[in-house]
Amino acid sequence: MARKPATKSPPVRLLRRAKGPRARFYSADGVDELFSIVTALTGEVSALHERLRTLEEVLQHAKLLRAEAIEAHEPSELSLQARLEAREALIERVFQVLDGLVSPTQRR
């Protein structure tokens, strides 16, 4: 029996910010925010780990990369600058939960 091709439904647009007050689970100040930060970091690390491992496996299978080549690599100045910018963007995303909780004079 032949399958019917799946029809694509229109994309769903989600709100960028939740409406209403932020949910509180812990009574101590900052614990909910810290938990949100750790959860965001865990998601970032997990996704990056999966992608990196997949990339290494694909490159090694295609005989384009030796495992020891990664350890011996020294990035260029341009690469180091791009990494710095990416790191700053990551920090911004992870700590966005603190927006509004820290006054502008307390920020670095």
Q: What is the element layout, followed by pairings?
A:
Elements: H1 31-61, H2 67-72, H3 77-94
Question: How would you describe the overall organization of this protein?
Answer:
The protein has helices at 31-61, 67-72, 77-94. The chain is flat, with a radius of gyration of 21 Å. The chain is built from three helices and no strands. The chain has a domain at 31-98. It is mainly α. The N and C termini lie far apart (64 Å). The model has no long low-confidence stretch (mean pLDDT 84).
Summarize the structure.
By secondary structure, the chain is mostly helical. It is built from three helices and no strands.
What are the segments in which pLDDT stays under 50 over at least 5 consecutive residues? none
Largest sheet: none
End-to-end distance, in Å?
A: 64 Å
Estimate percent helicity.
40-55%
Question: Pairing-aware structural class of the strands and helices?
Answer: mainly alpha
Number of helices: 3
Strand content: under 5%
If you average the pLDDT, what whole number results? Answer: 84
What is the count of β-strands?
0
Task: Label this structure with key terms.
mainly alpha; 3 helices
